[in-house]
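To: structure desk
From: M.T.
Subject: fold request, one chain
Message: Could you run this one when you get a chance? Sequence is below, nothing fancy, just the single chain.
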Amino acid sequence: MTIEVRDLSTHFRLSAGTIKAVDGVSLSVRRGQILGLVGESGSGKTVTGFSIMRLVESPGFIAGGNILFQGTDLARISEEEMRRLRGNRIAMIFQDPMMTLNPVLRIDTQMVETIRAHEKTSREEALRRARDALGMVGIPSPEERLKAYPHQFSGGMRQRVAIAIAFLHKPDLIIADEPTTALDVTIQGQILAEVQKLTSKFGTSLIWISHDLSVVAALADEIAVMYAGRLVEQGKVGEVLDHPLHPYTKGLIDSVPNRNRRGAALNQIKGMTPSLADLPEGCSFRTRCPREAEICKQVPLTREWLHDHTARCHRPYHPTEDFT
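Reply: Done. Structure tokens follow.
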């Protein structure tokens, strides 16, 4: 197992009180596996990724749980130990590549510094690896492009550079935080193909954070659905998307535009995501759920309703129910 997260909780101390942005999340990713982490904005996906990377800043803090990376609990090691792992054995691809790239430094400088921060190697060898990495993600004339600045690249090319940097050390785990959201569909498809090829080539585990179910369906092996800081459903991507158990998961699937009839109003989940400072008692999805019942005022537990398919729900859908 590359990464195993157990009962992870990340809180933020604010003037309004303590916000539980991540509340008891447990997930695992095997070597070479791609896990899609999905949910609406504000569901806790990005904070989960930042927590694994130990990048949560004050007033946020990891309140509890374990982050077991190849047997080492990342939640317990020192910042110096984490720094040696971050960017080396664990990498992150951000939604905006300019969070990764320094606008005033050439690409070669940034990539060489990334390599030499973790390995004792010559500048010539680092440059060769940087050039090969750019070629690996489909950037033409990589030797020339190494001498360019980030602003001289398109958005799609900048994201390819960010992906190349993430793969420089052939890490065991990469966390990708909606890296294709701002790109057009053609470039998005190309980058997804590159990521699949690279994870397969190096045996890298990948957590792909997204709100786009179509991207996750095409990319991931397994899927985990988040709502209000908690995981509400997990399983193999085909099983979850074809036979959703949790009403929230079904609502997300029904909201995909291509599932609507031409000329008909778009489906949507009623209401708004509740404030994490004022969640409903019991199931946090209760006030928006079409299957709400009295029992939903009690906190649901995560149960395995089907083989390797879990849901945190009192009244899940049955796979034989008609969803048409």
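Reply (cont.): The chain has two domains: 3-89+172-185+204-312, 97-168. Let me know if you need anything else for the meeting.
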